[in-house]
Amino acid sequence: MTTIDPKESIDLPSGVTLHPSQDEAIDRLLSDLLQRCPARFLLLAEASGQLLSVLGKRSTNDLVALSSLIAGDLAASQEIARLTEQAQNYHLILREAPETNTFIAEAGVHLVLFVQVNKEVPLGWARMLIHETSCQLAEILSAQPEDVGKLDLGLSEEKINSLVGDGLDSILKG
């Protein structure tokens, strides 16, 4: 359920404008992640905390507060990494709970992706799909609205097989 009217553009607090073609591509990508992972709950927010999209079974009705806290959590993690000289190009926070695992992932400089998966979903599998989705979200936001349709988006079987193959290669070479 997207909170943005897909018929009009919206100016995000970061200064980025989200166009209808970008919003539709984001919705497709998040729906794909929800099914393929499988994820229990997804939330996409702008880096300032503005709620953009929600999918799946949620455990709270205060999504605006949750969105803001998620963005703040990622910002704090990024600052901790900077202060401890551990800065990186991509931040991913993992929280393990008795029944679920929760990921907070940076999706470029403007978006934050929150994903909750059941404990049965292998961590490596979820991490791989979330990382790929985060990269694709950043691509969508940085693309010109008319070029979004030309991007290779989604988590197709071919793309997943390639990601798994690349992961296995890096383990064997590492």
Structural account:
The structure is a single chain. The chain has 174 residues and is of the alpha+beta class. The protein has a single domain, classed as 2-Layer Sandwich (Beta-Lactamase), CATH 3.30.450. Helices cover 43% and strands 21% of the residues. The chain has helices at residues 20-36, 63-83, 123-142, 157-173, and strands at residues 10-11, 17-18, 41-46, 51-56, 92-96, 100-107, 111-118. Strands 4-3-7-6-5 form a five-stranded antiparallel β-sheet, sandwiched between helices. The longest helix is centred in the middle third of the chain and has 21 residues, at 63-83. The protein is globular and about 40 Å long. The termini are far apart. Residues 1-6 have low confidence and may be disordered.
β-strand amount: 15-25%
Number of helical regions: 4
The radius of gyration is: 16 Å
Q: What integer is the average pLDDT? A: 86
Pairing-aware structural class of the strands and helices? alpha+beta
Shape: globular
Give the domain tally. 1
The CATH architecture is 2-Layer Sandwich
What descriptive keywords fit this protein?
174 residues, alpha+beta, Beta-Lactamase
